[in-house]
Amino acid sequence: MANECSIYPATLDDVPDIVALQEANLPTNGGSLSVRQSPEWFTKTISEESVVIARCDGQVIGYVVGTSLVAQVHVPIIQAMLSTYPAPPECYLYGPVCVAENMRGNGACRCAV
């Protein structure tokens, strides 16, 4: 397990690391994230205080996003979900959730907030 680990709201300085982690976990790179979000999308979402990251030994090792329906209505998988399971307009969605492959299952994201 990593020596220095913390979980906190993402800042704009974290966007490049979040995007790099996302890229490593897209299907084209062997991962299973279903949607590629742009750096601009993460920037906007972070400004709404909707992204939390885990950082261990200086590296972003995970993130989770919580957004309004409006923020993700452009995503085809979200559109399909909402057509099958309509939601109240004021609800929030969580996801994507992404954890670096080498950090999964070792308790690294159970560090102090």
Kindly report the spatial arrangement of strands forming the biggest sheet: 1-2-3-4
The mean pLDDT is 86
- Shape designation: globular
CATH class: Alpha Beta
CATH fold type: Aminopeptidase
List the helices and strands in order.
EHHEEHHE
Question: Span between N and C termini?
Answer: 16 Å
Q: Per DSSP, what share of the residues sits in E-state strands of 2 or more residues?
A: 25-35%
The unreliable regions are none
CATH architecture: 3-Layer(aba) Sandwich
Q: Name the structural class.
A: alpha+beta
Question: Cα-atom Rg, whole angstroms?
Answer: 14 Å
Number of domains: 1
- Write down how many β-strands occur, each being a DSSP E stretch of 2 or more residues: 4
Portion of residues within helices: 25-40%
Largest sheet: 4 strands, antiparallel
- H/I helix tally: 4
Describe this structure in words.
This protein is an alpha+beta fold. The protein has one domain (5-97): Aminopeptidase (3-Layer(aba) Sandwich), CATH 3.40.630. Helix content is 28%, strand content 26%. The chain contains 4 helices and 4 strands. It has helices spanning 15-24, 39-47, 69-72, 76-84; strands at 5-9, 51-56, 59-68, 92-99. Strands 1-2-3-4 form a 4-stranded antiparallel beta sheet. A hairpin with a 2-residue loop joins β2 and β3.
